[in-house]
Amino acid sequence: MSSRICYALNKYWQNRVQIKRYCCSSELQLTAVIDLSVADLTRLGIKALVLDFDGVLASHAEPEPRAEVAYWLNKLQRDFAPHQIYILSNKPTVERQSYFAKNFPGIIFIIAERKKPYPDGLQQIVTLSGLAAAQVLLIDDRLATGILAVIISGVRGLWLTKPYTNFFARPMVETWFMCLRSLERFGCKII
User: Which end of the chain has fewer CB within 10 Å, C or N?
Assistant: First the structure.
């Protein structure tokens, strides 16, 4: 864990200008994952979509996506490139993997040896998909993990600015991640 934190801090500093672009450019941001359409993906030249789980598809530690996200995923799975939708989560629980295998067999759950911000998972997806990195898009709610992995790997990214949360169910976990996101945003302001 500490080596991942050191790696993240080092890479965050090295790539601070690119990270700041995500904080300042609405073109690199997305409010909610369900706002993204197949037409948007086509317009952007995206052939493979990668989704983080916590904050993007559901609040932290939930075993499955929110109902509106599941509806969106169904439509996306039907209308987007078959077998070119991936889940890349730093918490790939067995429950989540089973849920996707049962309900979304066309969506591929990736388990990377090293977690984001290491680029391993994204590089694995580029190799698996057979696409150029510029045709792969990750949607993530964290600047210092997912978006940093995007920058390191050369794939494209959208920063989710209004992640799903559930403070009532998990006040400590959600507060922790709210603080981390605030710290990441603060980092953008001072660099």
Answer: N
User: For the chain, first and last CA: distance in Å?
Assistant: 25
Q: 123-157, pLDDT tens digit by residue?
A: 999 999 999 999 999 999 999 999 999 999 999 99
SS3 of residue 51 by DSSP = strand
Domain that holds residue 53: 2-190
Asked if residue 103 lies in contact with residue 97, where contact means CB atoms within 8 angstroms, the answer is: no
**Number of domains into which the chain is organized:** 1
Q: Do 51 and 86 meet the contact criterion of CB atoms below 8 Å apart?
A: yes
- pTM of the complete model: 0.95
User: What is the edge-to-edge ordering of all strands in the sheet holding 29-30?
Assistant: 29-30, 156-160, 136-140, 48-51, 85-88, 107-110
What is the C-alpha separation between 15 and 94, in angstroms, rounded? 33
Class of residue 101 by CB neighbours under 10 A (exposed 0-12, middle 13-18, buried 19+): exposed
Q: What is the CATH number of the domain that holds 72?
A: 3.40.50.1000
Q: pLDDT tens digits for 51-102?
A: 999 999 999 999 999 999 999 999 999 999 878 999 999 999 999 999 999 9
